[in-house]
Design brief:
Blueprint lengths: L1 E4 L6 H12 L2 E4 H14 L7 H7 L5 E3 L8 E3 L2 E2 L7 H11 L2 H20 L4 E5 L2 H5 L5 E6 L2 H11 L8 H15 L10 E4 L5 H16 L7
Parallel strand pairs: 1-6, 1-7, 2-6, 7-8
Antiparallel strand pairs: 3-4, 4-5
Helix pairs in contact: 1-9, 2-4, 4-8, 7-8
Length: 225
């Protein structure tokens, strides 16, 4: 198993998917699960500023997450929400939902189950998020913490939201700074994680760095451990 952690905009999703493809592993985007729940709560007009309300309604969202790196779809109640969960509205709301202890416990249990199934099946998996290597799967033999400067992260996020005319790099960076502050409690770099700064390097190089780390850490051992 390979754990890839880091802040929003560091390039975790693209890098983790690329590593999964390169090594023929499954892929898990844990952040998408928090986003899917947030989208569902907003769609059902749950007041996410009240933790008790979030906790009371969260189990109404039946979340299914795909583990194919070429088609990492996510569904809520059978509906594909892969696109809607990437909006600014969800991005700016997800931290409040993720901070609710009951949500954390509920989704971490699901994430561990997905990882466990992949390991038991002999497929191996690349899981990415905020605290995979320190909380969700501390037993992972390969741990990476991917980071980048605030400006680089904001530019990448702005590019992802290019269809929204209100989005500018400055606005994205301000929203990102607020989210970083709210996410700090969940952001935990494992002590044995290798840090990679993706600011001045391309995606292919980031993927190759992670693959090289994985190969050296495992020394040919099965990816299922």
């Amino acid at each position: 198993m390979i754990a890839v952690d880091g802040p929003a905009g560091a390039g975790k999703s693209s890098a983790a998917r690329g590593v999964a493809r390169s090594l023929s592993l499954s892929y898990l985007d844990t952040g998408a699960m928090y986003r899917a729940l947030t989208w569902w709560l907003l769609a059902n007009q749950v007041d996410i500023s009240i933790p008790a309300e979030v906790a009371a309604h969260m189990r109404g969202a039946v979340i299914e997450v795909g583990t194919d790196p070429d088609a990492p779809r996510i569904r809520v109640g059978g509906a594909d929400v892969s696109g809607p969960i990437r909006t600014r509205e969800v991005s700016n709301a997800v931290s409040a939902v993720a901070a609710v202890p009951q949500v954390r416990a509920h989704l971490i249990a699901q994430q561990r189950e997905i990882i466990g199934r992949a390991v038991a099946a002999g497929d191996g998996i690349v899981a990415e998020g905020r605290d995979i290597g320190s909380v969700v799967a501390p037993e992972a033999p390969v741990k990476v913490f991917l980071t980048a400067t605030e400006t680089a992260r904001a530019r990448r996020r702005s590019a992802d939201l290019a269809g929204d005319p209100a989005v500018t790099v400055a606005l994205t960076q301000a929203e990102q700074a607020r989210r970083d502050g709210r996410d700090s409690a969940q952001m935990a770099r494992a002590a044995d994680a290798v840090e990679i700064d993706s600011t001045g390097i391309g995606l292919d190089e980031v993927i190759q760095k992670i693959v090289s780390i994985a190969m050296s850490r495992t020394a040919g051992a099965a990816w299922t451990t």
